[in-house]
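User: Show me a protein chain along with its predicted structure.
Assistant: Here is one chain, sequence first, then structure tokens.
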Amino acid sequence: MNAIKSRIAPTPSGFLHLGNLASFLLTSLWMKKLDGSLLLRIDDLDTDRCRDEYIADIFQSLNALQIHWQQGPVDEKDFTKNWSQQFRINTYRQTLSQLKTTGLVYACNCSRKEIQLNREHGLNTCNCRQRNISLDTPNMNWRIHVPENSEVILFDERIGNSSLNVHELIGDFVIRQKNGMPSYHVASLTDDVSFGMTHVVRGMDLLPSTAAQLYLAELLQNSGFKNICWLHHPLLTNAEGEKISKSAGHHADSLLQLLQHDSKELLRMVGLVLWPETTEDLENNLPDLFILFSSETTAWMKP
């Protein structure tokens, strides 16, 4: 049996925020509970959005939280020299080549707006598959066909084991972008397989992404990925009830800056969001949260 292993996989497209804090804490605490190991994987495939200051912020924030990982880059220089996803692009392209052999890959030049309009009319696809455009045509997305009856099995510690309809959740999704780069779904799946992940923590907003990657794993006949144990956690929201995201944040609102002002209060707030039925007074530090997380009676396993 494979050793228990999870990962923290931030994207350096902005300063980390409270939502990242929730995910990082859950991942770290879960691995402590299961005596597993932790990988730091920085997803920098989208070079247009990555910045050196965002990469530095990842290391500074994790160190401030005292979250320790056993595999991955130790600092910014090590990441740039040895751990960037740019070094693994050929591996991602091998995954794309395997998917091409399924006969389900087709070229598509529809914009995101056009696809969204289709979904608003109840269509989770477009007509590009029927057009039989050559996959070698420049400036084309590659999409994978997802039939209406496509179901995948999700093993989830919080919401329970369930069957997900991939067609309804995400439809025919992109596996290669117009610029020729592999999509997030392909890169994340390939990395999780390559690094031997057995447990993965994600926000509930990424449930469609999980379904998409499980579907790809089915096509690739990768039993290891299909058997990953997931934990999809509730999302932290702002005062307006909107998801906290990097795109809306500024350095003054970053996780690192907030931690420096009142780290205990932030950890207390995150704990109460993740464990809403808990009445204990969380003292906002990792040891106390770990004790709470280890209890079989806490609410973290409930939707």
